[in-house]
Every structure is written in C-alpha cells, then in structure tokens.
C-alpha cells in the first residue's frame, strides 16, 4: 500500500490528539486510574484511548508492572514528540489570536543576567509601550552551560545569550545582534576613577570583584594575558550583578564588565569605565532559537526591538 494512503487510513484518520494527551497522562501518573481521576474521565474511557492508539500504531504502548504501568519503548518514542505537537498547536492558537489582534501576543524569553541588567528591560519597556497587550515572560538563563534546555523543552521561544566559539548542534540557530566589549570599571568614589592615565599593571594589588561565569572568566584571563600579566587575586566572587554593583559603589573594588551593563548602570550605581584598553575581542550576543521552529509574530516584534536597542548602543 502506498505510504500516503496508509497514513490516511491508519494514522491520519485514527490517531487523535485527545488519545495522545490521555496516554501522556497515564504515563505521567503511572496508572489508568490516576490519569482518569486527574482528567475527570472514566477509567474505561482512558483504557479505550490507549487501545485506539495501540491499534493505530500496531505496537504495545504500556507495560504492566507491580507499581502500575510504564511506557514501552514505542510509547517513549511517541511521547518524545508529544511536547512539540502540543506546543506547535498552542503556538498556532496564539498566532491566530495575534493575527486577529496584531497588538497582542506572548513572548517567552530566557536571558543571561548581563543582558537582564539593562538591555532587556529597555526592550521590554519600549515594546510594552507600543504593544500594551503583549505579554512577556522573561526568565534568567545560564547560557554558559550551553545545554539550551529551555529552548529544547519549549518552555521559552528564544534565548538571548553570548555566542560560544565552538560549533553548536544542528538544531540550534544563532543570530548575532550585538558585539559587547569589556571595560575595567570602578565606582566614581574610587581614587582610580579620577586618573586619566592608568595601566592594567597599576591595578594588580587592588581589590577585585568578579562575576561568576565561564565567559567573563575567559575575557578576564585573556585581557591580563594580552598585557603580559597573570590574573589578579580576586577578593570577592559575586553571584549577581546587583551585589557587584553595590560593592563597586563603595569606591573600593574594581571589576571587568561589558559595555551593555555599563551603559544602563553607570549613572544609577555611580560607576565609570577606566581608560584602559583591555586588548580583547568583543564578545557577541545573539538571539538563539531552534532551527526548525518558527517564531510567533510577538516574538519577532521582540527581536526587532532588541536589534533596534542594540543599534542605539
């Protein structure tokens, strides 16, 4: 039988999204009774949904165990795609709503903390003024792990992060929008902030506070290496930029931070860049997405506003 006809007869006409949803619930709760209770269905209805799937796919989907039921390898292969199926349907509904009302929509974005410290809030502020019905859900991400978990489990639409130099997996797409050089930064009360000529060697014995993260550590090591110096002894390692800014404001500490953070925090925290050329390559930020996943209209507006904000820098 031709594959197209077999699809129409066996899969297209018989595999129902409702049955797939019920199978997922059975696996999640470990029993048909548990799924029936939570879905507010009868147990025979749950059993029938699973049987329908097994008949359409011609394979067993559940193994009975003393503790309940467990997915077979066939069910695991099917449920591996279930998140994508329902995510795409949810996105289709959201896109239809957006097309019916272009000023509405939803954007789910994961951002690194350095961008959450100024650039992303600026983008959200400007976008929300123009499109007040757009809902934005922003979470902090840790792109240094390069797992892109949030993208792959589809809990976010896009990730805004630094681009790693190594080759990424084939399912990841990168769109660079900003080169972000680093600077030595001090509080305006720091005596070094009043000097017009400073070398990096002059600052070796000063108290340094460095943020966590592999990317910034590589930048710091590269900068001192370019000047023929070992990395300085850091007195504090800060897990957040908020703590780092507080320490800089005391006028005692120095750090190395990207231009984007300095732009949005210099006045508020009374900090400034010192006149030192670090001799390091600017580290780019990018919008990272899944290659075969189309962004919603609202997410595309977010990316457009993000690039506009970057161009102003």
General description of the model:
This protein is an alpha/beta fold and 313 residues long. It has 12 helices and 12 strands. The strands form 4 sheets. A 5-stranded mixed β-sheet has the order 4-3-5-12-6. The protein has a 3-stranded antiparallel β-sheet with strand order 10-7-11. Strands 1-2 form a two-stranded antiparallel ribbon. The longest helix has 28 residues, at 73-100. The chain is elongated and about 80 Å long.
Strand content: 15-25%
The CATH architecture of the largest domain would be: 3-Layer(aba) Sandwich
List segments where confidence is low: pLDDT < 50 over at least 5 consecutive residues: none
Report the strand count.
12
CATH superfamily of the largest domain: Periplasmic binding protein-like II
Helices and strands in order:
Blueprint: H1 3-12, H2 17-29, H3 32-39, H4 43-57, E1 62-65, E2 68-71, H5 73-100, E3 104-111, H6 113-116, H7 119-130, E4 133-140, H8 149-152, E5 158-162, E6 172-180, E7 182-187, E8 208-211, H9 214-226, E9 234-238, H10 241-249, E10 254-258, H11 259-269, E11 271-273, E12 283-290, H12 297-312
Parallel strand pairs: 3-4, 3-5, 8-9
Antiparallel strand pairs: 1-2, 5-12, 6-12, 7-10, 7-11
Helix pairs in contact: 2-3, 2-4, 3-4, 7-12
List keywords for this structure.
single chain; 313 residues; alpha/beta; Arc Repressor Mutant, subunit A; D-Maltodextrin-Binding Protein, domain 2; 3 domains; 5-stranded mixed β-sheet; 3-stranded antiparallel β-sheet
């Amino acid at each position: 039988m031709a594959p197209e006809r077999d699809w129409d007869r066996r899969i297209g006409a018989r595999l129902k999204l409702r049955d797939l949803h019920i199978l997922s619930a059975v696996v999640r709760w470990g029993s048909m009774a548990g799924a029936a209770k939570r879905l507010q269905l009868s147990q025979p209805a749950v059993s029938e949904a699973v049987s329908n799937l097994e008949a359409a796919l011609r394979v067993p989907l559940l193994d009975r165990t003393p503790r309940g039921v467990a997915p077979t390898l066939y069910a695991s292969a099917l449920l591996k795609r279930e998140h994508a199926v329902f995510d795409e349907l949810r996105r289709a509904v959201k896109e239809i709503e957006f097309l019916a009302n272009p000023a509405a929509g939803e954007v789910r974005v994961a951002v690194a903390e350095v961008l959450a410290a100024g650039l992303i809030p600026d983008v959200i502020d400007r976008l929300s003024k123009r499109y007040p019905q757009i809902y934005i859900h922003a979470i902090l991400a840790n792109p240094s792990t390069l797992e892109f978990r949030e993208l792959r489990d589809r809990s976010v639409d896009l990730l805004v992060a630094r681009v790693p130099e190594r080759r990424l997996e084939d399912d990841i797409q990168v769109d660079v929008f900003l080169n972000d050089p680093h600077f030595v930064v001090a509080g305006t009360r720091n005596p070094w902030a009043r000097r017009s000529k400073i070398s990096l060697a002059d600052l070796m014995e000063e108290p340094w506070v460095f943020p966590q993260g592999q990317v910034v550590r590589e930048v710091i090591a590269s900068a001192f290496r370019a000047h023929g110096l070992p990395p300085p002894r850091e007195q504090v390692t800060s897990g957040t930029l908020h703590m780092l800014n507080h320490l800089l404001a005391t006028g005692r500490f120095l750090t190395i931070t990207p231009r984007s953070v300095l732009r949005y925090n210099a006045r508020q925290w009374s900090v400034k860049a010192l006149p030192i050329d670090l001799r390091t390559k600017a580290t780019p930020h990018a919008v990272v997405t899944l290659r075969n996943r189309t962004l919603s209209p609202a997410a595309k507006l977010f990316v457009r506003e993000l690039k506009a904000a970057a161009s102003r820098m």
